[in-house]
Design brief:
Length: 320
């Protein structure tokens, strides 16, 4: 075995039964594509989650602007496990025109096929004066319709524990999955959303862990409406416990960092700067990625069975 304890990628791949890949939402490393790709290269990761390029959400790039993105990903051999869309998110009110979501999904269907991505992150709409039951009925109806459209394109929509009718409740997320009742609809779990939104994320994860298909990783301290984001493991979000629970319940997919340590893109791709960490956005992002790998090596893998580090991933080997 190499001196750093890592097994060769070829040996691991030949025997691995399950794999969790490290990834990151690229625009938090910098708005430009080259900065985003450099961050993944410096971390040695082979996957990137896309949200925006040069401050423009992926679905709003024209074909001429998107073509070099797809080409660069292919040339560098980067997989795209998920696209972080605006669909049903902070800027899409439950009383607004659903045409915006439908149009975005149609564009993203073409983008996803070009970069071989299956998952699209969605939420469940900001409320706009409706009572709770009416909000839920309308959100479920819209997401069911969007899911049917996604299926036609070979895509799966993943609802995040964030903004929306089902955003902060594990039971509501389960109710939403049951109501949509379709294999092209699932769940995305973010380790760090609980503090800012006022709930216990680990407690929520206990409710939904078996249904999670993609994971965002961040950490924070503070309280509802006043979260301060930290490197993974330095906050109060019980990130290691969350990741161990996911492995224990059979998760295999990507752990995608969304650090928020310096940059918090929201709504229609605008950027809110928290205050750059030492060295700037790129350095802060890379530091968070390295912190996640250390957290996993020191506090997640020792408590699991059969999982081992590999380049840009962790793997569980077949027992022989």
């Amino acid at each position: 075995m190499p001196p750093d304890g890592r097994r060769s990628a070829a040996t691991i791949a030949a025997r691995a039964a399950d794999c969790v890949t490290y990834a990151g939402i690229g625009d938090e490393a910098g708005p430009g594509l080259e900065e985003q790709l450099e961050a993944m290269g410096r971390l040695g990761w082979r996957a990137i989650e896309l949200r925006s390029v040069d401050g423009v959400p992926l679905a709003e790039l024209d074909d001429a602007a998107f073509a070099p993105v797809a080409r660069a990903l292919s040339e560098r051999g980067l997989a795209v496990p998920c696209i972080a869309a605006q669909i049903a998110g902070w800027s899409r009110s439950i009383t607004g025109d659903p045409a915006a979501d439908i149009a975005e999904l149609e564009v993203l269907a073409r983008r996803c096929h070009a970069i071989q991505c299956r998952y699209v992150r969605v939420m469940s709409y900001a409320n706009d004066g409706l009572d709770d039951p009416a909000w839920g009925v309308r959100a479920i109806g819209r997401l069911r319709e969007l899911t049917l459209r996604a299926e036609q394109h070979g895509l799966t929509l993943l609802h995040e524990n964030c903004t929306g009718w089902a955003g902060t409740s594990g039971q509501r997320m389960l109710d939403l999955v049951d109501a949509v009742d379709h294999p092209a609809f699932g769940l995305l779990f973010d380790t760090g959303n609980g503090i800012d939104h006022g709930y216990d994320a680990l407690e929520l994860l206990h409710d939904i862990s078996a249904l999670v298909r993609h994971v965002h990783v961040k950490d924070a301290i503070g309280h509802a409406g006043a979260a301060h984001y930290t490197e993974p493991g330095a906050g109060h979000c019980e990130v290691a416990q969350c990741l161990r629970l996911l492995l224990d319940t059979g998760y295999a997919g990507a752990w995608s960092i969304e650090p928020h340590v310096a940059l918090r893109p929201h709504h229609s791709g605008s950027y809110h700067v928290n205050g750059e960490p030492k060295g700037g956005l790129l350095e802060g992002f890379v530091a968070c990625g390295a912190a996640l790998e250390r957290l996993v090596a020191e506090h997640v893998l020792p408590a699991t069975t059969g999982w081992h580090p590999a380049p840009g991933a962790i793997v569980r080997e077949l027992q022989t």
